[in-house]
Amino acid sequence: MSLADALNETPGRSGGKCILMHIRDTLSEVDRATLDKWNEDTRAFTAPKVAKALRASGHTISASSIRNHRAGDCPCYGVHDGPR
Ligand SMILES: [Zn+2]
Fold first, then answer.
1. How far is the CA of 37 from the centre of ligand 1 (A)?
2. Of 25, 21, 5, nearest to 81 (Cα)?
3. In terms of Cα–Cα distance, which of 83, 72, 81, 84 is closest to 20?
């Protein structure tokens, strides 16, 4: 993970959710449904594509955060960074 990514990961990491799900919480109902659709069709909507779209709408997120969530490797699934 790059330093820039590490910085992106830091804010809002609480409550057992990753940054992607924190952003999802702030979205409108329509956008939330869109994001859910993207997360189902991961081949058409790759992590970099989704990250780019989210960043274009003013959110701070890296493709790796999306990839981690899709892989089940994020706080949503009880996986945390650092020593356990
Ligand atoms: Zn997650």
1. 15
2. 5
3. 72
- Kindly report the pTM of this predicted structure: 0.75
Question: Do the beta carbons of residue 73 and residue 14 sit within 8 Å?
Answer: no
Give 4 Cα–ligand 1 centroid separation in angstroms. 19
Q: For residue range 32-65, list pLDDT tens digits in order.
A: 999 999 999 999 999 999 999 999 999 999 999 9
Residue with tokens 């924190």: 22
How far does the centroid of ligand 1 lie from the alpha carbon of residue 79, in Å?
9
Would you kindly state where each structural domain of the chain is located, as residue ranges? 3-77
Contact in structure between 23 and 74 (CB atoms under 8 Å) = no
